[in-house]
Amino acid sequence: MTDTQTETPSESAETPQTPTPATSAAAPTAADVEEALRDVIDPELGINVVDLGLVYGVTVDQNNHAVIDMTLTSAACPLTDVIEDQAAQSLEGLVAGQRINWVWMPPWGPEKITDDGREQLRALGFNV
């Protein structure tokens, strides 16, 4: 008995696919980072930091490190560590690293809350 190997038509007829560069599929955008930050909940208000208007800007460099410009509702907020930990968890696997720049200018105000954030606050009983 001889051992022969036959090619199936799909193996021989298909043209090889050009691989897509890993960077095009894997490189996160600032919008991807912002979307992931919606999982970061302000511990005092129970609303995500994006809809509260606390995220002022996001950049992602060529090494997939995110830099997030963020503020708090009050400069005296004692919960920055909690927010930093939540941000790190929400971005894990998306970016190679992250840094939060705490910024205080312009100061945060209720006008920075998104429409979705206002709806969420109203559902919690806030008058916004």
From TrEMBL:
InterPro entries: Fe-S_Maturation_MIP18, FSCA_dom_sf, MIP18-like
Pfam families: FeS_assembly_P
SUPFAM superfamilies (alphabetical): Fe-S cluster assembly (FSCA) domain-like (SSF117916)
Superkingdom assignment: Bacteria
Region annotation Disordered: where it falls in the sequence: 1-30
PANTHER family in UniProt: FE-S PROTEIN MATURATION AUXILIARY FACTOR YITW
Protein name, as recorded: Metal-sulfur cluster assembly factor
Record organism: Ruania alkalisoli
